[in-house]
Amino acid sequence: MTAPALPVAAPRLLHEPGLSGFLFADPRLAPVWALLRIYVGYEWLMAGWGKVTNPAGVWVGDKAGAAVSGFLTGALAKTDGAHPDVQGWYAWFLQHVALPNAAAFSYVVAYGEVLVGIALILGLFTGIAAFFGGVMNASYLLAGTVSTNPLLFILATWLVLGWRVAGWWGLDRWMLARFGVTPRVNGVTSTVPGPLRGGSPDPQAH
After folding, report:
1. Residue of 25, 58, 85, 180 with fewest CB within 10 Å of its CB?
2. DSSP string covering 33-90
């Protein structure tokens, strides 16, 4: 009779491969991440600022929802054919959820783009900001709008992967340490924490 296999205990820490740690967690690449972050942030800020300050008020103001309604109506027209630009399940969401609440979505889109842009430029909660930016890019793509959305979506995905270092040249350098994400050594934020090097955690880094 074969003895039952013993369960394998989960490790306390899953170590990261050296290449992954270098690309997504090494502060030496912070300048590269900062350029990507600021570029994406600028694109979002300009897009959102144009909506918020639109003199016709079709995004924010008395006519809020007019621009969104037109956009959604155009997206619903792309649902025909064997290979439609807008899939049926997303068309249902646009028709039954987004379109009836176009005014609310208008404010969310306009101010959401501005907030994502500011957060990325400042390097504040970069991973979270990039995630919501990617959600907006995906929403536009699902609605059949290409433009710069594929590029921004790819860059947003990279920023989410590199969230620990993408804001190193920004406010995240202090905010992440404040929340205990990056450790402190003798009261000073460690530049390359032990777990990010792929080795054992530094017992003095807490």
Report:
1. 180
2. HHHHHHHHHHHHHHHHHHHHT-TT-SSSSTTTTHHHHHHHHHHHTT--SSS-SS-HHH
- One-character DSSP codes across 130-168: HHHHHHHHHHHHHTT--TTHHHHHHHHHHHHHTHHHHTT
Q: What is the pTM of this model?
A: 0.83
63: in domain: yes
192: pLDDT strictly greater than 70: no
Tell whether the model's pLDDT for residue 129 goes beyond 60.
Answer: yes
The answer as to whether 8 is a domain residue is: no
Indicate the number of domains in the chain.
1
Would you tell me how many other CB atoms lie within 10 Å of the CB of residue 136? 21
State the Cα–Cα distance between residues 38 and 42, nearest whole angstrom: 6
**Torsion-angle region of 22 (φ positive above 0: left; ψ -120 to 50: alpha; else: beta):** alpha
Query: 101 is in which domain, residue-wise?
Result: 29-169
- Residue 184 located in a structural domain: no
Q: What distances in angstroms separate CA 163 from CA 59, 84, 201, one per listed residue? A: 31, 35, 19
